[in-house]
Amino acid sequence: MQTLREEFRLKIEDFGTTPDLKKAIWDYFWFLRDHMARNGLVSFVHTPYHF
Questions:
Q1: CB under 8 Å to 12, separation ≥6 — which residues?
Q2: For the whole model, what pTM was predicted?
Q3: Which distant-in-sequence residues (6+ apart) come within 8 Å of 1 by Cβ?
Q4: Is the pLDDT of residue 4 over 90?
Q5: Dist CA 14 CA 4 (whole Å)
Q6: Please, which residues have CB within 8 angstroms of residue 16's CB and are 6 or more apart in sequence?
Q7: Whole-angstrom Cα distance, residue 44 to residue 34?
Q8: Region of residue 8 (left: phi > 0; alpha: psi -120 to 50; beta: else)
Q9: At 12, phi and psi to the nearest 5?
Q10: Could you tell me the CA-to-CA distances from 12 to 8, 9, 47 in Å, in that order?
Q11: What is the pLDDT of residues 10-41, one digit of tens each?
Q12: Hey, how many other C-beta atoms are within 10 angstroms of the C-beta on 11?
C-alpha cells in the first residue's frame, strides 16, 4: 500500500483501520462472491447506473 501511494501517487484508504467500514466491505465481498458463484458469473461491473 505504501509503495502504491508513494510511487504511483494513488489515493488509498486503508479500510482495515475502520472496523465498521471493514465489516461492510467484507460483507459485500462475500455476498458478491456467492452471487457470482450461484449464477456462474466470472466477472462483473460495479456501477451506480442501472441498465
A1: 1, 4, 5
A2: 0.67
A3: 12, 14
A4: yes
A5: 12
A6: 22
A7: 13
A8: alpha
A9: -125, 130
A10: 11, 9, 19
A11: 999 898 999 999 999 999 999 999 999 999 99
A12: 6
CA 41, chain centre distance (Å): 17
Residue 9 Cα distances to 6, 14, 15, 33, angstroms: 5, 15, 18, 30
What is the C-alpha to C-alpha distance for residues 12 and 38, in angstroms, rounded to an integer?
Answer: 31
Q: What share of the chain is helix, strand, coil (3-state, %, to 5)?
A: 55, 0, 45
**In the block, residue with C-alpha cell 482495515:** 16
Q: Are 29 and 21 in contact (CB under 8 A)?
A: no
